[in-house]
Sequence to fold (321 residues):
Amino acid sequence: MSLSSPDSTLASEPHFALPQRGLFVLCLATLFWSILVLQAGGFTTSIHAGMAFLDWPLSNGSVNPPGWLTEIDKFAEHSHRLAATVLGLCCIAIAGAHAWREPRQRVRQAAYLLVALVVLQGGLGGLRVLLDKLNIGGTGNLKAVSFATAHAVNAQLTIGLLALITFMHTRSWVSASAPTSPRHRLVGKIALGLVFGVIIIGAVMRQNHFTTWVSSGKIADLFLPAGEGLGWAVNLLHRAGALLAGLAVIAFAILGARQLRRSLPLAFLLGLQITLGVISIQLPLNPHVRTVHLVVGAALFSTLCVQVALAHRPEGFLAEV
Fold:
C-alpha cells in the first residue's frame, strides 16, 4: 500500500479532484497517533487495568492524578485517556479541514463519519467505566463488558476509516484505473467480513479475559484447543475464524497479484499476525505479545479496508467530486 502524495498532473482529470497535500499529512499523522492510542488501550486491557480509576472522564477527579506516573495500572489507563483525547481533537481538526479544503463530497462525509465514530468511542469507553460493577454494585459485570467489547470493536472501525481517508489523499487512490474482476471484489468483501468477525470474537475474548490459552503443545491444538466451557468455545471460534479469514485474505491477495505492491503488505501483515497468534498461545500471560497482536490485527484490517475499497475504485467509490 503506497502512501505517496498525489501527482499534480492528475488535477486536469475531469472526474476527480486533486487531494490536498496538507490534508494527507494531517490524516497520516493522526493515523500514526491512533495506533499509539490502540496500543495504550490494548496494554491496559492486557494487564486488567481498565478500572484503575473509578471515575470518567477525569481520573480520580484530575487530569494529573497522583501515582499515574509511578503505578503501571494507573499509567496505562490514564495515558490511554490522554492519548484518546488528543486523537479526538485531531479527528475534529480533520473534519474541519475537510469541510474547508476538500472538494470531494464523499471524502468530506467520510471525515464527518470519523468524528462521529470517535465521539461514540469516547462514550463507549466512559460507559464501560461508569457501569462497571465496582461503581454500580452487583456480582455480574455484563453491562461493562458489553460496552468494553463495543469500545474495542469500534476502535478497529475508526482506525480502518481513518486509514481509508488517508489513502484517498494519495496518488495511488486518485490514479487507480485498472479494472478488477467481480470475483476479486467478492472475495475481498468476504475476507473483510471474516476478518471483522474475528475482531469481534477477539474483543469478546479479551474483554472477558478468555486469553489463557489451553494447549498441549501439539500443532492441532493451535486451531482445535482442548478444553470445555465458554472460554474454550470463544477461543475455538477465534482460532477457527482466524484460519478461515486468513485463507480468504490469501485468496484476495492472489487474485490481485498483478498489483504486487498491493498484495505484499497483506501477505506480510497476515504472516506476522499468525506468528504473533502462535506466540500468544505459547506465552498466554505476556501482555506485550497480546498487545502487539492486537495492533498488527488493526493494521491488517485497515490495509484490507483500503484494498477492498481500492478494488471498487474504478466505479468511483468514494472518489468522484
